[in-house]
Amino acid sequence: MNCPDHSCDNINPVYTRRDVLKQFWCGFGYVAFASLASEQAARAASGAATPLAHPENPLAPKRPNFPAKAKRVIFLTMRGGPSHVDTFDYKPKLAADTGKPGKRPGTSLLGSKWKFSQHGRSGLWISELFPNVAQHADEMCLVRSMQTDLPAHPQAFLKLHTGSFQFVRPSLGAWSLYGLGTENNNLPGFITLTPPSGFGGAQNYGSGFLPAIYQGTRIGQENRPIASAEVKNLTSPLSPTAQRAELDLVQSLNREELRRDRVNPEVEGVIESYELAFRMQSQMPQVMDISKESEATKKMYGIASTPAAGGGGGLFGGGNGSTDDFARKCLLARRFIEAGVRFVEISHGNWDQHFNLGNALAANCHSVDQPIAALLTDLKQRGLLKDTLVVWAGEFGRTPHAQGGDGRDHNNKGFSIWMAGGGVKPGLSYGQTDEYGYEAVENKMPIHDLHATMLALMGLDHEKLTYRYAGRDFRLTDVHGNVVKEIMA
């Protein structure tokens, strides 16, 4: 039928893939924009440890370079720089010399307000701020000689996550997923819980120049309880049969374009995101529903029987910044890795105690101590700790001298982290700072060495895990990094 006003004369009846994608926009594809993919780019630029097991699936499991001690990672990041001299780096000389002049002009040394004691057969010195975590001393590897480049939060936090504070680079989680693939195609391979919007924002879990399928899927937001978190647009108004028919049509059009050698990586990523979203609908809600966990398990983590004030309901409950809130994140992390997710990160902050150290640091430690200890217990009971690498870290430490009487300034020259499970030596203290805790003086471990070692525990050679971009092969550790074999079991 002709249009009376001839307004339809110039309509092109041929639909492009872009037109089809726009027409079929039904919401559920948004969920995997956190995991945008490009199969073709992944195949063409495959610099992973070994060729993809299934080239048509960029997330398929891949063989590591050598036998892996850790199959998965739980990364606990304490944003803001926890004070090492008050938590995991015992300095009796600092306590004895409290009030004496510090290295920085006009400052005075400040000993810890909290007692340290030895724990376990290993005798690791741990502060009374972590009574529950201390019970796992014989499973922990304390690294007390960390160093990073700059004492500024955004740069140091980015360095911890991507190995670079100067350029946009893929995150540690993205590199891990790129090198190993995932064990469950129905879930994202890399999940980040309540990451900060600042301090580098999405770059901390982004894929950089890697295909976008490897970037982290964000769940929740900083300063909001996990109770309010949801995976948006996970459901569709269409039936599964109708969704599958749409995806099949899009894929058929895509195959026709590929046959003609017309490849658009962005479109490939959108299509792959639709496929992942479709698969996630069946399993993601079940994994995220902690209501089926036993009351004993919830109590062990510190999850309240009723949601905390302001926590809301939903699958989670819990209040912002509380033990209950962090406990739910830790339990979710266990459920995710148990379901096959390769890399899970949990963020907690703010640990930037320039003042009110006595109250603020104690509150932070209290909110994470029981949940982290429960996570380690739970993983061990389920036989998962031996091949799950748990890492606790901030972007830097704090100064041994006081700031404002009851605070500490930034310190990038020496700080502490700890690891457990996943092939690290248990009950080990590695490296040390000077007698006051100002800087690392023995077995210094810069961030590139940490990354190289974490990858090695996952069976990946940091020098071989590369991706060709802008005419050169890039890697997480750039041209640096040494594997610290002394901390590997």
Chain-averaged pLDDT: 84
Which CATH C-level class of the domain at 59-225 and 319-487 is it? Alpha Beta
- Terminal Cα span: 77 Å
Helix proportion range: 25-40%
CATH topology of the domain at 59-225 and 319-487: Alkaline Phosphatase, subunit A
* Distinct helical segment count: 11
The 3D shape can be described as globular
Main sheet: strands, sense, barrel: 9 strands, mixed
How do the helices and strands follow one another from N- to C-terminus?
Answer: HHEHEEEHHEEHHHHEHEEEEEEEEHEE
- Computed Rg: 24 Å
Class by alpha and beta content: alpha/beta
Beta strand %: 5-15%
Q: What is the CATH homologous superfamily assignment of the domain at 59-225 and 319-487?
A: Alkaline Phosphatase, subunit A
Low-confidence stretches: 4-12, 17-55, 307-320
Architecture per CATH nomenclature, i.e. the level-2 architecture of the domain at 59-225 and 319-487? 3-Layer(aba) Sandwich
Total number of beta strands = 17
Descriptive overview:
The chain is an alpha/beta fold and 489 residues long. The chain is built from eleven helices and 17 strands. It has a domain at 59-225 and 319-487: Alkaline Phosphatase, subunit A. The protein has helices at residues 17-23, 39-44, 92-96, 153-162, 172-180, 240-259, 265-288, 295-301, 323-338, 357-381, 447-457; strands at 72-79, 116-119, 124-127, 140-147, 190-193, 217-219, 343-349, 388-393, 397-398, 410-411, 415-420, 428-430, 432-433, 440-442, 445-446, 467-469, 472-474. Strands 1, 4, 5, 6, 7, 8, 11, 12 and 15 form a nine-stranded mixed beta sheet that branches. A two-stranded antiparallel sheet has the order 2-3. A two-stranded antiparallel sheet has the order 9-10. A hairpin with a 2-residue loop joins strand 16 and strand 17. Helix 6 (240-259) packs antiparallel against helix 7 and helix 9 (323-338) packs parallel to helix 10 (357-381). The longest helix has 25 residues, at 357-381.
